[in-house]
Amino acid sequence: MVVIAAAGEVDLSSSPQLREAILKSVPNAGGTLAVDLSGVSYMDSSGVATLVEGLKSIGAKKAAFCLLAPSGSVLKVLQLSRLDSVFDIRDAL
Amino acid sequence: MEVLSDPKLLKSVRGVVRGFAESHALSDEKAMEVVLAVDEACTNAMRHAYGSNPGRKLWLSLRSTEDGIEIVLRDDGTPASSERVKQKEVVAPDLETLKPGGLGVQILYEVFDEVDFVPGPGSGNCITMRLRRPDGA
Question: Which domains does chain A carry?
Answer without folding.
Answer: 2-90 (3.30.750.24)
